[in-house]
Fold this protein.
Amino acid sequence: MAPQQGTQANLFGQINVTFLSMTHYYFSQGLHSSASCHAVLAFILPALHSFLQLNYQGNKDISPFNTHLTSVCVAIASFLLYCFAYNAELRFSENHCHQTYAFNVCRGMTCFGWLVVVSLASILFSNSLGPPLYFLYILFLAGELLRRRL
């Protein structure tokens, strides 16, 4: 029983270190505004990444690239598009004449950011929860587009 207890203590220690480092990053970047989508994603994405690392920690032969290749590719592509949209938003916010573009880029950032979260969550949870998560994302996306259009 001693090795198992040591493994559990190590697991909980890693979770605590991960949580503390995310909290430190969260507050050191000034991301404590609850209205900011960036603040939420800055907290959720590292947490999901850490939980995925813990989930696949002992399996050197099995990785998310082997088991959920489509979801991993969607998550990576969405994250890159989110980063490009974030860069574009920073550029458009400097020029006040491009407010329409900045509004549309912000809408795209929201869509891509939450698609990353849904993709990583579908990898973390069982295969039966993947389709409902994507369905909820589609509902969220439709609501977001309607809310911003009105």
Q: What stands out?
A: The two ends are 60 Å apart (CA to CA). Residues 63-150 form one domain.
